[in-house]
């Protein structure tokens, strides 16, 4: 699109210069710069970005500490790319003494960030017993084991409460073991049929949660100590679909629903 010079008065020239500079620097409309992404457009998973977790958390934390019932694999039946999407599928099968298999991907040691905006476009599974999550953990335990070094749950969903999406943090002061976790939830009626963008904006003074650009929760830095706010060191991204567990299976598991899939269109990380 061309512009006539007679409309480019001094103020207009300055404005266009700012817009052009932002465009060249790779900034988006939120004023942040894309530094990492996976659009899942290749033929296979990018192993330079993701690691598939293998196992059930034993012997140290069977069920990953949440009494989950799945065994994670890197098999194509559980993790695959198709039509530009990442598909993590949970199956009711028998593997390694587990009745279910599923997939879990992490960016640990391949992508970690301290502050920024993380966006994940996803379509959620359905049915009692499903527990998909998009979340973050610290790569190094700066303040000690969980929950001292923190956890950021960008999106969680449990199948017995269809369409209700949760965003939460866990710290030494605020965690579900004490019943003091800080979070909020919102109903997305078509979360199981349509893709939605689940995002956080993590800054020095707060973390904010968004769905499709609409903010629904804020956790503020109290500036007291690391027990309240351990979010000052790098975290990595986790995508997984659990089966059962203390929360996901608290109202039983419907064994007529399998297979079920968490489908991800993209993951994008921006810095401010």
Describe the protein:
The protein is built from one helix and 18 strands. Strands 1, 3, 4, 5, 6, 9, 14, 15, 16 and 18 form a ten-stranded mixed β-sheet that branches. Strands 2, 7, 8, 10, 11, 12, 13 and 17 form an eight-stranded antiparallel β-sheet that branches. The protein has one helix at 10-24, and strands spanning 33-38, 51-52, 70-72, 79-82, 85-95, 98-102, 104-106, 112-113, 116-123, 130-138, 151-156, 164-170, 182-187, 196-202, 206-211, 214-220, 235-243, 260-271.
Sum up the structure in keywords.
about 270 residues, Jelly Rolls, ten-stranded mixed β-sheet
Topology:
Blueprint: H1 10-24, E1 33-38, E2 51-52, E3 70-72, E4 79-82, E5 85-95, E6 98-102, E7 104-106, E8 112-113, E9 116-123, E10 130-138, E11 151-156, E12 164-170, E13 182-187, E14 196-202, E15 206-211, E16 214-220, E17 235-243, E18 260-271
Parallel strand pairs: 3-6
Antiparallel strand pairs: 1-18, 2-7, 4-5, 5-6, 5-18, 7-17, 8-17, 9-14, 9-18, 10-11, 10-17, 11-12, 12-13, 14-15, 15-16
């Amino acid at each position: 699109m061309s512009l006539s010079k007679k409309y480019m008065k001094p103020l207009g020239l300055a404005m266009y210069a700012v817009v052009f500079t932002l465009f060249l620097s790779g900034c988006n409309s939120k004023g942040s710069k894309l530094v990492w992404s996976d659009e899942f457009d290749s033929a296979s998973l990018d192993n330079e970005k993701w690691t598939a977790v293998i196992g059930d958390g034993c012997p140290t934390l069977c069920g990953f500490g949440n009494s989950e019932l799945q065994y994670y694999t890197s098999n194509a039946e559980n993790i695959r790319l198709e039509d530009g999407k990442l598909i993590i599928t949970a199956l009711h099968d028998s593997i390694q003494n587990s009745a279910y298999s599923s997939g879990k991907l992490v960016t640990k040691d391949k992508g970690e960030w301290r502050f920024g905006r993380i966006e994940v476009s996803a379509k959620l599974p359905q049915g009692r017993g499903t527990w998909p999550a998009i979340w973050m953990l610290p790569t190094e335990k700066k303040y000690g084991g969980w929950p001292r070094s923190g956890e950021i749950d960008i999106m969680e969903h449990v199948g017995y409460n269809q369409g209700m999406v949760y965003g939460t943090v866990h710290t030494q002061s605020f965690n579900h073991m004490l019943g003091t976790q800080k979070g909020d939830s919102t109903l997305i009626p078509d979360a199981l049929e349509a893709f939605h963008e689940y995002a956080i904006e993590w800054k020095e003074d707060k973390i904010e949660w968004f769905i499709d650009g609409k903010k629904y929760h804020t956790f503020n830095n109290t500036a007291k100590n690391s027990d309240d706010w351990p979010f000052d060191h790098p975290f990595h991204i986790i995508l997984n679909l659990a089966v059962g567990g203390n929360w996901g299976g608290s109202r039983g598991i419907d064994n007529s629903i399998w297979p079920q899939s968490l489908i991800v269109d993209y993951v994008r990380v921006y810095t401010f």
